[in-house]
Amino acid sequence: MTSPSARSTGPAGTTAAEPRVLCDTRTLAETPPLPGGVLWKLAESARQLDANVVRIAPGDRITTHTETQLDVLVLVMAGDGALGAGPAGTLLPLTEGALVWLPRGATRSISAGAAGLTYLTVHQRRPGMQISTMTSTSA
Question: pTM score > 0.85 for this model?
Answer without folding.
Answer: no
